Amino acid sequence: MRYSKVKQIRPNTLIVGIDIAKQTHWAQIMLQGRLIGKAFSIQNTREGFENLVRTLKAYQQKLGATNIVVGMEPTGHYFKPLAYYLHGTGMCEVVIVNPYHVNRSKELDDNSPSKNDRKDARLIAKLISQGTYFNLPLIFNTWAELRTANVSRMQLTQKRWQLKCQLITILDQYFPEFPDVFKNVLGKGAMYVLTHCPFPVDILELGEQTLCEGLRGATHNRVGQKRAQKLWEAAQNSIGIKEGAKGARLQLTHLVEELNLIHKQLEETEKMMSQLLKQTGLGDYLTSIPGVGMVTAAAFLAEIGNPDEYESYKQIQKKAGLNLKENSSGKHKGKTTISKRGRPSLRQLMYQIAYVSVAKNAEMKAFYEYLKNRKENPLAGKQALIAVAVKMMKVMLAVCKNRSHYDGSKVGNQNLVVRMQAA
């Protein structure tokens, strides 16, 4: 793969390494392994981008270069405006360089660990000339909309988790028995109580019967007399403190309001993701897999982009950081672990998909049990889940590329059954 990339950098290729920053980028031009001129700055404005294009065209004409390759580090989100702008001009190929590679190359360049923008731009250009780069995975149209919607969903989920922790902190002090009555403090019944009578004194004043009627109405009769009685008894015997109750009540009210708002925003975001999933035409295939729902399928496509751009599931495995690495040297045989170099959000998503699949997908459950119980090299629970995550990744990519519904007989568990019987 790296050799093919080196071949793409022809002798007359003008290479441009750009060190990305928030306001001012730095660029270094290279041709045939030698630096051309000094590093120059690029302002993160339209005028700055236009000046860069004019400069590159002038150098291309002056030096007789046939093509231009521009490389940069994917520094946060700051690289996106320049990358999309250059892609839109059609005058050059835009690639990315792994920041880890740039960092490791610093001392090889001048035997000094010092860092500055000009040096980084030079290192990026050198790495590109050696073929140490990756194609820039820019996404457009529905795929871009899916990505931004999924980012919003993850941010809302994170906020909800933080608010839930704050809510539990208050309850631990003023009504510590509450989680014993409601295991899910964000459920409909629990939220009704937190909205109308959050503290023991409020419940005792409200009365058990009124509380029961309120719970029935909030949960559509799923929660009623037994839960109301249990909550009433918890309120009577509560050891919660009473000092500072007014301030705590106000804080709890604000938390509940924020949680209700986030719940509404999550519903809107997931509805949009479901609509975008339909536009891709892949929703029916992905959701035919037991354990994969609409939101999960949409999140998967949001993370990987267009599945047709992948030749193998191993590319997605590497993007998620789920590829294996061996830690061995000489006679020492270390543990084999996952690299964790990739998109953490994709890695977390695949782990969640694996966790649900083991419960709802018969083939994945059998695969999981085999990995845990086989005679040679049995895996621990989490290790087996990682293996299931990779297998699910392979299955999900296959149904997308083949435009076919899930077929458990094609998962490859036939040989697995034979091995389990032999064991």
UniProtKB/TrEMBL annotation:
Upper classification of the organism: Bacteria, Bacillati, Bacillota, Clostridia, Eubacteriales
PANTHER family reported in the protein's UniProt record: TRANSPOSASE, TRANSPOSASE FOR INSERTION SEQUENCE ELEMENT IS1111A
Record domain Transposase IS110-like N-terminal: where: 16-176
Every Transposase IS116/IS110/IS902 C-terminal domain range: 285-369
Highest taxon listed in the record's lineage: Bacteria
Biological processes annotated in GO: DNA transposition
Protein name: Transposase IS116/IS110/IS902 family protein
GO MF terms held by the record: DNA binding; transposase activity
